[in-house]
């Protein structure tokens, strides 16, 4: 399923924004389970945490694509959000700008109903999850729809303006 995002990001020329609004995803993820059992990434051992997705990010940001990720979270945060926070430094190292928005600061914002991406203000990739955070059968839905992208981005930008930079956010 991540293939759609990788393909669109490989073709992006200007921007890629990602909105995440769930407090947990795929709780059966082996990396999350290992984190729950005490495994932590060592920022000094780049080889141990660099993965193929980060190559895609670094290539895109290296050619000038502004890549941003916004996570809207409940407080107190869930264990899954603590995990995401702990494993975000590789994304930042690859060139991604990450911010966190507590739901308490988003009450008057109108946010999309689905997580997703917008690439170059035209392509929207919607993520479909089940109630327990697993990929739904629909998975990812790619739409080349500048009007939908415009609406999605307007909501994103309003939330981004209130969000806290990764380095300043505490869990």
Distance between the termini: 29 Å
Largest sheet: 7 strands, mixed
Give the helices and strands as they follow along the chain. HEHHHEHHEEEEHE
The CATH H-level homologous superfamily:
Endonuclease Chain A
Mean pLDDT, all residues: 96
Poorly predicted runs of 5 or more residues? none
Summed up, the helix count is: 7
Summing up helix and strand content along with how strands pair, one would put the structural category as: alpha/beta
Number of domains: 1
Helix content range of the residues, please? Answer: 25-40%
Give an account of the 3D structure.
It contains seven helices and seven strands. With 171 residues, it is α/β, with parallel strands linked by helices. It has a single domain (2-37, 50-168), classed as Endonuclease, Chain A (2-Layer Sandwich), CATH 3.30.870. A seven-stranded mixed beta sheet has the order 6-5-4-1-2-3-7, sandwiched between helices. A hairpin with a 5-residue loop joins strand 5 (123-129) and strand 6 (135-144).
Lay out the secondary structure:
Layout: H1 2-11, E1 15-20, H2 30-36, H3 46-49, H4 52-62, E2 66-73, H5 79-86, H6 89-93, E3 97-102, E4 116-119, E5 123-129, E6 135-144, H7 146-162, E7 164-165
Parallel strand pairs: 1-2, 2-3
Antiparallel strand pairs: 1-4, 3-7, 4-5, 5-6
List keywords for this structure.
seven-stranded mixed β-sheet; 7 strands; 7 helices; 171 residues
